[in-house]
Write a structure and sequence with these properties.
single chain; alpha+beta; 6-stranded antiparallel sheet; 6 strands; 27% strand; globular
């Protein structure tokens, strides 16, 4: 696990990732990111081929675009609670934290967890 600093955000981020890893031991990658800066605060990867820095800015931009669309009433709905993407053999899940100031991302093989399990575990550790 990598933690960028030792401030309060980093400590909380480390707790989140440790909780995810405890409940999803086959986790491929998890990270907590500052949404405004795109800076990865804490991360875990099973392999060096998974790089949280490569996805952090794209995911932060995606969340900002979705929040702007909700604010502009581009589609009906309440606050953004999470985003899930199903790939051929992986599940990627994003969940905003701290009123959208941070977000948590996880990636897991679909053989190791289903969407319901991943969402519940993420909710439990990021609330």
């Amino acid at each position: 696990m990598t933690v960028a600093t030792d401030d309060e955000m980093a400590k909380r981020s480390k707790e989140v990732i440790e909780g995810l890893l405890h409940d999803l031991p086959d986790l491929l990658m998890a990270c907590v990111v500052n949404t405004q800066s795109g800076r990865v605060v804490a991360s875990y990867t099973v392999s060096n081929s998974y790089n949280p820095n490569q996805i952090s800015l794209r995911n932060a931009k995606l969340l900002r675009i979705m929040e702007d669309a909700l604010a502009a009433k581009a589609w009906l709905g309440g606050p953004l609670t999470d985003v899930s993407v199903m790939l051929e053999d992986q599940l990627h899940h994003l969940r905003p934290m701290k009123e959208g100031k941070w977000y948590c991302f996880l990636a897991v093989h679909t053989a190791d967890a289903n969407l319901g399990i991943a969402k519940e575990i993420m909710r439990r550790h990021t609330t």
